[in-house]
Amino acid sequence: MLRIVWKLSSVIILAEISKVRLTDGTTPYNGRVEVQYNGEWGTVCDDGWDLKDAQVICRQLGFGPAVSIGGPYGKGKGAILLSDSACQGTETSISDCDHPGWYPQTHCTHIEDAGVICGVPEGRSKLPLPFGFSFLFPIWSYIYHILLQLGSY
What we know:
This protein is of the alpha+beta class.
């Protein structure tokens, strides 16, 4: 669990972000990005969202490198806790990235919820492929996610 401290007008605000997760994906390695902030789960807005931000999420989850952003993961529920993140891509946690502040410092709606596709880390299970052709996973995963984005699968 990380403790973040902001000082605003001589008032110190302590906030905790301890978890991130991907929801409504087709595998454990893709989905809508959700963060826990002060005990509440919420989404991340895609304003300012790029592959560097996705890289940080994938690293924080212990997955392989980020492959893509976006995706057909639907609208989240609850608060939109973070927007306009500006990661360098080397941070170990999304809370280490620059951003204008946590909820309610956002102007987003859930149609703008951020999504990510992470690579599969070494030694983890992959998408099932017929007859044990798991060596085709990188190609299959790429094609599968493009088809999902096009609505063809």
